[in-house]
Structures are given as C-alpha cells and as structure tokens.
Amino acid sequence: MPDILEILLARYNYWGFIILMMIGLYAMISKNNLVKKIIGMSIFQTAIIFFYVSISVKLGATIPIVDHDGHSADIPAINPADFVNPLPHVLMLTAIVVAVATLGVALSLAVKVFQRYNSLEEDEIYSQINENKIR
Amino acid sequence: MSQHLPLLIIAAPLLIALLISVNGWFYQRLSFPLAVLGLAAPLYFSIELLFLVLKEKVVVYKLGGWSAPFGIEYRVDSLSVLILALIPAVALLNLLSNQQEIENYFEKKTAGFLSLYVIFVSGLSGMVVTGDVFNLYVLLEITALSGYALVGAGKNEAPLAGLNYIFMGTVGASFYLLGVGYLYMATGSLNMADLSAILPSLHDSKVVLFAFVLCLVGLFIKMAFFPMHSWLPAAYSSSPPASRGLVAPLTTKVMIYVMIRISLSVFGADFSFSHTILKESLVWISSASIVFGSIWALRQKTLSKMLCYIIIAEIGYMMGGFWLGNADGITGSILHIINDAVMTLSLFLAAGSILYRLKTDELSELKGIITSMPITMGVFILGGFSIIGVPPTCGFFSKWYLIKGALQADSYVFVAALLFSTLVGVVLFFRIIEITYLTSSHHDGHEEPRSWVNVIKEVPLNMLIPLVVSGAMEVLLGLYTKEITLNIIKFALPAGY
To answer: Searching chain B, which residue's CA lies closest to the CA of residue A57?
Structure first.
C-alpha cells in the first residue's frame, strides 16, 4: 500500500495530466453535443501541454535568463541545474498555436453543421440524415 | 540554389499559397495559374533533388545555419526522395484535372480553396523532408488542418464528417506529440539522426518503448489503420471531388512513410523489430484490414465509397509488408507507397471524370459508359488491374515483393489476406466492367443511329490528359520497378537487410 501511495505522490504531475487527458477523451467519446466534444478535444490537447511544461521543471531552478550585461566577454559559468529547461516551453508555444488553429477549424465546421441541420446534438443530426436517406 | 533545395520544396508552395489568398481579393483569375506554379515549382525541385540523391545518397540542409542537435535539420535520402517527387506530381495532376470542377464548386471562394490545396502539399512535403521529430508534428498539423478544411468544404454530410475527422486527427496527432514528449524525456534530443545515435543505449528503457507505442498509435489513427479507420470513408466520400483526389491518394501514404521513417531512422530497425509480439500482431491486424477493407468495398453502392474502402485494404498491404521486417517486405511496402498513390490517383481521377459527366457515381447508373467514355473507363480499368495486380501494371510488382516477403517470414496469414484481396479485387472490378458494358436501360422509343460521334461523350481535354498521364505512370512505374528498387529503395533499407 505505501508503495502505491509513493508512486501516486512522487509522480503527481503525470497523474494530473493523465486524468485531464481522460476527461477530454471521455467528453469526445460520450458527449452528444458537438461543441462539448470540441471542448473535450481542447482539454485533451491542454493536458499534453501540461505534461510538457511539467517535465521541464527543476526544483530550485529559475527562468533561463543568464545574468550578463551583453558586452563583456566573460560570461559567467552556467550551471544547468540552476535553470529550468526552456525547450519544452518553446515547443508548447507552437503546440498552443496548433491547438488554437484546430479549435478554430472545428468551431467553424460546427457552425456549418448548425446551418445545415439546425442542431448541434449528434443524435438529432443523425436522425435527420437517416430520414433524408429513406426519402 | 541547389544547396537550398530541401527548404525550397516547402517554402515555395507555402509562400505561393499566401500569394494566392492575398491575390484572391483583387484578381481571381490569377489564382489557378499561381496554384499550378506553386505545385510545379516543388515538382521541379524534387526532380532535381532526385538526381542529387542518386549521386550523393543523402542531402542535408541546416535550417538557419544551426547545426544538427540544436537546429532543425532537413534531410532527403533514398527513402524520402521518391515520395517527395510523388507528392507534387499527384497534386498537380489532380489540380489540372479538376479546374472546371473547382471553379464551378467554389465560385468566389476558389482562391481560398487553392491556397489550402497548396498549403496541404507544402505540409506533406515538409513531413517527408524533415529530420526533426517535433517539426514533423507541426507539419503534420499543418497538413491536417488544411486537410480538414478541404474535406469539410463538401456538400451534404461533409461538415459533420470533417468534424469527426478533426476529432480523430487531433487525438492521433496528440498521441504522437505525447510520444515525442516521452522520447525527449528519455534522450533530451529531438533530432532524428541524434536520437538514433542515443537510443541504442536505451534499448531496454520502458519510457522509450512507451514513446514508441504512443508514436505508432498516433500515426495509426492518422493513417486510418484498421480498427481506427471509420473516419476515412465518411470524410473522403463526402468531400468535394477536387480535394478527394488530393487527400485520398496522399495522406495515408505519407503517414505510412512517417511511420517507416520513425521506426527505421529514429528507433532503428533493431529496436522496432525486436518486439516480436508487436510485430506479429501488427501483421495480423494488417491482414484483417486487408480482408475487411476488401469485403466492405464489395458492399458499397457508390464508386467513391468503394474506392475509400479499397484504400483501407491498401493500408493493410503497406503496414503488413513493413512489419514483416525483412528486406523484401520493406521493399514491397515502400514500393507500394509510390504505386498505390499513383493507382488511387488514377482511380479517383477516373471516378471524378465519371462524376463530372453523369453527376452521380452510383454503381447502378454506370450502364453503358464504356462506349460513351472509352478513355476514362480504359484508365479506370487499368487502375483496377493495378489494384488487382495484373502485370505489367505497378500493382503487380509491389504485391510480388509483399508476397515474397511474407513467405520468407512464414506469415501465411498475410499471404492468404493478399490473395483474398486479389480475388475480391477481381470480382470488384469485373463487376464494374460488366455494369459499364450494359447499354442504357431506358429506351426512348426511336433508335438513334449509333455512330462514334454521337456516342462518345468524353470529359474535356484538361481532365483527360492528367487521367491518361496517371494511367501511363502506372505502367511506367511497373516497367521500371527493377531500376527503382536497385537504385533507390535498396539504399533506403536499414543496414544489414
């Protein structure tokens, strides 16, 4: 029992992102409303952003800006342990842009769906489609 | 100039796409020539790269002059160069063939569509040349986002199918991104060449295995591999014909290329093929994909839906061939990526022409069109023969390699699946030939004098020429299989194969 607790506590960032990711996946699979599905998709993507940001954390480290006036040649010796890893943050900037663009495309398609079927509920849309097929 | 080729192949279409959309506000008529330029330029660059790679084997480009592990590297080698040339070629043929279709369908929004079209091609080429796993993700999403819009622009159920495509595509891309995250945690690098140097020392690491599986699952969703395939027929069959001819032949094939690239160039053949359970179960699932794809194709009542299910069966070919894990299997898989793109292109172009003439592609409505559209149907049947695997069409040779590889690996399930789909292919296409030979069922009283002039109602020349070119490409690729395999694909195989 203490082992499990230890695993849960020592790796809490992973548990956090997995739970968030599953909430998003659940919403995408089981929600009936298309906009709710899109929200689920957004949560799903955000979970991965959290994961990336959390792996760059170092205890006691600070932002990666080297204290240096920019003119003198003597750059102070840099200890990597003093600075958090900036790369995952930079990667996630790109991923956030991608996520926003995906959200935009998804919402615009949702608008088109609404214009066509006058509904955003998936079951109503499918019953409309089936009715059209029978006619 | 020549040292910038790997970048130009992406940058040129990207900039031209921007130009098309800006120009669309002022002078619509220029958008089509611009789009043609935006695809012809990368085609020219890629052919030049092909000769360069034949000579030097690998062309490396450092983006912004930053050297490998820190900067992004673009790398063209024997594995990527053929697919790189194929992408703009397929896109250009499809664009030329669909000029009237696009202008009729999108009217005032033609510029927007063409701009997306060119961005899509640029993203696909980018995925093929990039040597950086995160850059690959970004280009994957560039391709996917333009692809969602291209697919969702269709009529009827297209927006809904597009939305489902977004959900699936995003989950796939996110899994891939997560896999890259784990890979970065284990190695601290994102460059493919650098990763492949670090990873052998982490051969037993569970994090690396997890990263591998996550990347694969993400790509499986993206390529519509068997259990995750359901978005593909829905999305492709309701999309506008112009985007169907672009998205259907290229997306899945490039995704399979990406999977091969990740497995061979990042994780390495030794690691990828060392997990026997994974390898064997993937061959089994591929066989299932082939069998079910073929059966579903048989059940469809429209031409476009049928072709979509054929694509799913074809994905099984390439996946199974690769995961056999021997030289013949991998060769067959890479060869089939190229052949299948050309095959599906010519089938979709022919289906597009039929749709253009008849305004429907219900199989039962195709009666008699072999006399009214002999050239279109000729190319369609040629494409069908290629899918079945009749020599000298290209489909025969890749299937030959796949079966040879399967026999070598003692994977009789895969052999059986390949033979089964061949049989189903025969039924599928001969059924269509039979329908198209039947003369029109509704008689209108008086018999018209049947002369060639009255009967033939072919599509316009600009649709016919790309169609014939794609048909010729099938035969040429088939005839030059030996040259392609010995001079290019042989060098794409991992060391020791």
So the answer is: B185
Task: Mark yes or no for CB contact A106/B163 under 8 Å.
Answer: yes
Please name the residues in contact with B26: beta carbons below 8 A apart, sequence gap of 6 or more. none
The pLDDT score that the predictor gives to residue B300 is 87
Looking at residue B445, its pLDDT comes to 46
Per-residue pLDDT tens over the stretch B420-448: 999 999 998 888 888 887 765 454 445 45
- Report the DSSP beta bridge partners of residue B191: B132
What is the rounded distance in angstroms from the CA atom of residue B148 to the CA atom of residue B161? Answer: 9
Three-state secondary-structure class, residue B371? helix
Whether B166 and A105 lie within 8 Å, measured CB to CB = yes
Residue B408, classified by CB atoms within 10 Å of its CB into exposed (0-12), middle (13-18) or buried (19+), is middle
Residues of A whose CB is below 8 A from B186:
none
Q: Is the Cβ pair A25, B162 closer than 8 Å?
A: no
Q: Distances from the Cα of B227 to the Cαs of B24, B136, B235, B315, in angstroms? A: 41, 24, 16, 12
Q: What angle do CA B119, B124, B127 make, to 5 degrees?
A: 125
**Chain A residues close to B70, C-beta within 8 Å:** none
Which residues in chain B touch residue A91, judged by CB atoms under 8 angstroms apart?
A: 134
Quote ipTM for the complex. 0.91
* Residue A3 distance to chain B (closest CA, Å): 19
* Rg of the Cα atoms in chain B: 22
